[in-house]
Amino acid sequence: MRVFGDKRAVDGVDLEVAAGEIYGFLGPNGAGKSTTVLMLCTLLKPSAGRAVVAGHDVVESPGDVRVRIGVALQEAALDERQSGREILDLQARLYGLSATDRAAAVERAVELASIGEAMEDRVKTYSGGMKRRLDLAASLIHGPEVLFLDEPTTGLDPVSRAQVWDEVRRLNRELGVTVFLTTQYLEEADALADRVGIIDSGRIVEQGSPAELKRAVGADVIVVDLPDDETAPAAEAASRVESVAAVTRGRHGITIATADGAAAVGSVAVALSAAGLNPEALTVRTPSLDDVFLMATGYRMATAASDAAAAAGGPGIRHSSVDTTAAGGARR
Amino acid sequence: MSPRHGRSEAPGGVTVRQVGIVGDIATVARRSVRSLLREPEALAPALLIPTFFFVVNIGVLETFVERVPGIDYRAFQVPVAIIFAVTGISRASMLVIDIQTGYLSRMLVTPVRRTTLLLGLMVADVVLALGLSIVVVIMGFAFGVSFGTGPLGIAVFLCLAVAWSLAFTGFPYTVALRTGNPAAVNSAFLIFFPFAFLTPAYLPREFMAGWMQTVAAWNPVTYLLEAMRSLLSQGWDAAALSKGAAAIGGLGLVTFIMAFRSLARRVSTG
């Protein structure tokens, strides 16, 4: 737990990450992801509770934790007046690598960052993607057992994002590095994580593998597009259909969890029609992590695509308020 | 000293360990000095201001002041030029940028010893202060100034200048660590003015108004100037040098306590 004044930024996070695992910590801005990472990286003491990283308590033995972890914080934290190589060399020196080890580690990191001859240039000339790759390489210079990545692709273009994903997968697969990854992008957690923890308002609200979490929503999801003023009667009508497991109201429609979408969609359409409602569209699809998040928190999360649209001035609501109604059985 | 933390055989076969305090200072200092050398434009004001005042002060006051027997006004002004050159120079602006960009946090997640993050920057400050002091002394030579105490006196003169500069850096570092704000760090330069001007910078103390003499008597720069001037014109004066060293030590004690407390607060995990 971590308290700032009256606010509980992290409140009841209980999780265990196995060695060699990629753990995705998913949640919107302000959910408590970064505060959790800061505590696990020894930069912030928990107000209460205990955390053990790589076998060492973060409060009692922060020095032992620090030599075993690598950290890439939210913004690529680099000294723009130094060259990429100088930053890597300094990082290696801070971890006490011998001259021989340091030379080898810097060369490995240079290769990892894959920014070519620009490695000799000042960091201020780098693009966002180059900075992020250098940041990642610097955090790995000492061969950490556990790598913390705090929103590693926020603000990156799709190509740079894909490169970071590939690198994280490779590190995990080839070097066995345990990765603790925070993200607000659903597809990032889906693509990378062996297990996902969903955090909202400082609490973990769901945890499991992406497949398990999606299965828990139901085998299928029916998305019904409706005018805002019709979502309440639509949710009530749909919840009375026998095969419907849960109905979630959003601003622009309802989302229905069901064991068999193809079988249920007809009954749902009939129920809506009987209630005098005219859906603009009914779509049957398999659940996404967004649906998991929606069911667990009552919010929809941003996707990388919507984030890019929002950044470009286009539409893209980050958190649309919804109501969830359990219907025809338990949600999980 | 806190115990060292280490482990061996990380993935990749390297040995990772916490470095000793000297090693950490050397690492942080290496970066600080390199940054310093890459900002020659930042050095220009530190050289232009003392040169300007040195030349103007001599031009305006030399003839008038040298009516008093025994005063070599050019030698009298060299310590003033040194004070103008080295007071308030620091790598505090670099520290603020590190705070703002998150680079300080990057270093804090390594096993680096926290105090070395400041001590390493101060090494660069010493390098800069020494360089500036040497330039000003050479300028003094060019204007015909000589040291009555010879080469050893020059060395002591430079040591006093560098020690003073270092003692004063505690102010900007304190502001940088407390605020993390570059504008506040720049404003910290204002504290230079009372230190530099409420002193016998232009005339010996006995020619100053009574109230000004009182103020100057409480200003450590007064004793620094008098100690440095003694090396130029009077020969070895143990009393003047002791007072100058005490003034530097006193100020340094206060500012270093402030700066290292601010560092402890900034890196606190509580």
Task: Explain what this protein looks like in three dimensions.
The complex is a heterodimer of chains A (332) and B (270). Chain A is of the alpha/beta class and 332 residues long. Chain A has twelve helices and 15 strands. Chain A has a six-stranded mixed β-sheet with strand order 6-7-8-3-9-10, sandwiched between helices. In chain A, strands 14-11-13-12-15 form a five-stranded antiparallel β-sheet, sandwiched between helices. Chain A is elongated, with a radius of gyration of 23 Å. The two termini of chain A are 27 Å apart. With 270 residues, chain B is an all-alpha fold. Chain B is built from twelve helices and two strands; from the N terminus they run ββαααααααααααα. Chain B has helices at residues 21-37, 40-65, 73-86, 92-101, 103-108, 116-142, 150-179, 182-187, 192-197, 210-217, 220-234, 238-267, and strands at 6-7, 16-17. Chain B has a two-stranded antiparallel sheet. The interface between A and B is large, with 44 and 39 residues.
Primary descriptors:
heterodimer, A: 332 residues, alpha/beta, 6-stranded mixed sheet, 5-stranded antiparallel sheet, 15 strands, disordered C terminus, B: 270 residues, mainly alpha, two-stranded antiparallel ribbon, 12 helices
Q: How are the elements arranged and paired?
A:
The complex is a heterodimer of chains A (332) and B (270).
Chain A lengths: L1 E3 L2 E4 L11 E5 L6 H8 L11 E2 L2 E2 L4 H5 L2 E4 L11 H11 L4 H15 L14 H12 L6 E5 L7 H18 L2 E6 L2 H7 L2 E6 L2 E6 L1 H8 L2 E6 L5 H9 L4 E7 L2 E6 L2 H14 L6 E5 L3 H9 L6 H8 L11 E4 L6
Parallel strand pairs in A: 3-8, 3-9, 6-7, 7-8
Antiparallel strand pairs in A: 1-2, 4-5, 9-10, 11-13, 11-14, 12-13, 12-15
Helix pairs in contact in A: 3-4, 3-5, 4-5, 8-11
Chain B lengths: L5 E2 L8 E2 L3 H17 L2 H26 L7 H14 L5 H10 L1 H6 L7 H27 L7 H30 L2 H6 L4 H6 L12 H8 L2 H15 L3 H30 L3
Antiparallel strand pairs in B: 1-2
Helix pairs in contact in B: 1-6, 2-3, 2-6, 3-6, 3-7, 3-11, 4-7, 6-7, 7-11, 7-12, 11-12
